[in-house]
Amino acid sequence: MLPANIHFIERGWLSANQMFFYDDHHLDIIDSGFCTHANQTVLLLKSFLHQFQHLSTRNLFNTHLHSDHCGGNHALEQQFSLTCFVPEAEFLPVSQWDVEALGFEELGQPCPIFTAHQSLVPGEFINIGAYQFEIHATPGHHPKSILLFEPHLSLLISADVLWENGFGAIFSGITDPSGFLEQRESLKLIEHLHPKIILPGHGQPFTDVQTALKSAFSRLDYLEANPDRNAHHVAQVLFKFMLMFEHQITFELAQRWFQKTPIIQKAASHLSLSTEELMTHTMRFLQQAGVMKVQDNVMMNEFNTP
């Protein structure tokens, strides 16, 4: 499906997928996974470079700054010579390490400090490996997200804007209905680009783009028709994510996480629930979905995803 000089790494849902693009001399990397997988991220790159010893690392590109996409940046910067590119709207917040503006605390997720050197500017082109990609702004899942499109290969790096079956949670939709509109416009952009191959942020590469888009539009219609569904989904996704990197957590610590995480507080307020009531709803859903079990006042991660 892919040219030999593009290497796709499908990772678990805790870490976003990674892509290695290379030419005759240099290797470029797209996204870096979650911080608890940082050692694995480094080893994956070292293993690849061991096979292609003529290559030297050059650039690290982040499609957006959610911690599962950029949590390995710090580790990669410590180990390799890399120029880090982030979406233009994120450059200043990273330079100042403005945690509030970056949104890591908002979602209750950690991300080690890293350095951004250059920006990915929507409307411009960027060389990645042996190819030149168009940069497009795609708000919705993340207000400052970008996607990358290579027109000659008709290859799209969609991040969390579109997966084979769905898309990333619409966090802004809890407080602002424009989040749904932005996601819809981003999906329409993909429809307009008409890619033949999509490399998503999670899940496997796929070529049946029309079916994926039909499913995504249907999912978006479902959430937009009743924003309460989206608020519940955000709580479910974020608590499942927390369970994945903690593996297990006591009831008391879970309760504290629900109480102190700003986006969860917003979701509870939108639903006219207390954080304790939202926690109860979320736990019930995850248990029924088979992605969490409870034993002796301890919540444990199961390997499925909601």
Which short descriptors sum up this protein?
single chain; 306 residues; alpha/beta; Metallo-beta-lactamase, Chain A; six-stranded mixed beta sheet; five-stranded mixed beta sheet; 11 helices; 40% helix
Give an account of the 3D structure:
The chain is an alpha/beta fold and 306 residues long. The chain folds into two domains: 220 residues, Ribonuclease Z/Hydroxyacylglutathione hydrolase-like (Metallo-beta-lactamase, Chain A), CATH 3.60.15; 73 residues. 40% of the residues lie in helices and 21% in strands. The two termini are 29 Å apart.
Shape: globular
Lateral strand order in the biggest sheet: 1-2-3-4-5-6
Uncertain segments are: none
Number of discrete helical segments: 11
**What is the CATH architecture descriptor of the largest domain?**
4-Layer Sandwich
- DSSP strand content: 15-25%
CATH homologous superfamily caption of the largest domain: Ribonuclease Z/Hydroxyacylglutathione hydrolase-like
Compute the number of structural domains.
2
Q: Name the structural class.
A: alpha/beta
In short:
The protein is an alpha/beta fold. The protein folds into 2 domains: 220 residues, 4-Layer Sandwich (Metallo-beta-lactamase, Chain A), CATH 3.60.15.10; 73 residues.
Can you lay out the helices and strands and say which pair or pack?
Elements lengths: L5 E4 L8 E5 L3 E5 L7 H14 L4 E6 L5 H4 L2 H7 L3 E5 L3 H6 L2 H4 L15 E3 L4 E4 L2 E7 L8 E5 L4 E5 L18 H16 L3 E4 L8 H17 L1 H20 L1 E3 H10 L1 H9 L4 H14 L3 E4 L2 E4 L5
Parallel strand pairs: 3-4, 4-5, 5-6, 10-11
Antiparallel strand pairs: 1-2, 2-3, 7-8, 8-9, 9-10, 12-14, 13-14
Helix pairs in contact: 1-3, 6-7, 7-8, 8-10, 8-11, 9-11
